Amino acid sequence: MAQQLQQQMEPKTNWRMFFWIFIIAIIIFYVVSYYSVNKSTVNITYTKFKEQVKLGNVENIMIKGQQIQGSFAEKYEIPVEGEEDTLTYGSFSTVKPNIEDQELLNILEQNNVEVRAEEEGNSWMRIFLITMLPWILIIGIFIYARRKMQGQMGGQMGNLFNVGKSKAKKYQKSPGGATYDDVAGLKNAKKDLKEIIEYLKEPDKFAALGANIPKGILLVGPPGTGKTLLARATAGEADCEFFSISGSEFIEMFVGVGASRVRNMFEDAKKSAPSIIFIDEIDSVGRSRGTGLGGGHDEREQTLNQILAEMDGFAPNESVVVIAATNRPDVLDPALTRPGRFDRRVTLNLPQKEAREKILEIHVKNVPLADDVDLKKLAARTVGFSGADIKNLVNEAALLAGRKEKKEV
User: What is the pLDDT of residue 399?
Assistant: First the structure.
């Protein structure tokens, strides 16, 4: 089958990554600051400190609570055990015992040591952690809970402002996207759709003749016959934007959400024109009106009304085509199938023998087949199989071969 077109995703901020980068940056900054300050500072005992003061080797000190820091008048050397080298330090730190020491002030004055003092307080790091860390944690927990709620409830309660946004998946134009070469069989269907491709590529040629593009095309066929694949291949052939959504995705628990999503989807498609909107299983919202429990106020019928209004609101030569798929055309509302809306019906039948053989060839491209596999015989024996059935047949055969430790299928 065709490779899935690359979905255009809006750039999202990875808040977890930024959060951890911020925490790591703080730790690195603190470690670097600590070592840059302490690489030339030696911790000495209080007794050694007083000895250095008496020797006149202390230039100044800073007293902060019980902590004393200062600078040596001359470098303080400490021999390294087992080596001839010595470590030299220009500053020191020590802790003053929690007792009265009148002698200290006397020897500091006698040796002309400059004394400074500060009130005991918390470091900037401690103040930052106490004041900012709780807020960082609260914000992080709030964002995590919000993301969790959005994931569990499909964004309904997690983000009420986006509940009316379209859930249509937008696929980019891609050179490696699906084309009619990836769709085996369906000759008549592809022939009917080539006119739409030509219009999307050259709308001016038809506009000059006063012709209006068909606004809607209805693909009708049994499940698994390739309706979705054909729609994507049509967008690939026309080299235009492709919006894909299921009819059930319009309906939500909130009244008016479906209509809002329809408006949003058609607005996006018009901005990206030429474009194709594909609505799968349109019978879930396009059933005949008047049969719902809520009458004219039923949410499903409101969504259908909005689809009809949007299709009527197309400009005569606006390059937006709506392709819908269903396997129950008999239940659709007559307003959907009247001229000017889904007035063109393309029927997809189950593949014939030649088509089944081509479908098999597509699905076995990456499957190592045994020499005795005859695709023509398989095609002859798979009467009534749809494209999806054939794909599943190949996959089940590959799984069975794997379970039996085979190298070929």
Answer: 92
295: confidence class by pLDDT, cuts 50, 70, 90: very low
pLDDT, tens digit (0-9, with 9 covering 90-100), for 59-69 = 898 888 788 88
Query: Which helix (H) or strand (E) element contains residue 135?
Result: helix 124-153
The H-assigned helical ranges of 272-386 are 299-312, 334-337, 353-363, 375-381
Which of 181, 288, 191, 180 is closest to 235 using CA atoms? 180
List beta partners, residue 244.
169, 278
Question: Residue 274 in contact with residue 319, Cβ under 8 Å?
Answer: yes
The Cα–Cα gap between 400 and 403 comes to 5
Sign of the CA dihedral with 198 first, then 279, 169, and 225 last: negative
Tens-place pLDDT, residues 68-120: 888 888 888 777 776 667 778 888 888 888 888 878 888 888 888 888 887 66
User: Helix, strand, coil % (nearest 5) of the chain?
Assistant: 45, 20, 35
Between 408 and 212, the higher pLDDT residue:
408
Determine contact, residues 92/44, Cβ cutoff 8 Å.
Answer: yes
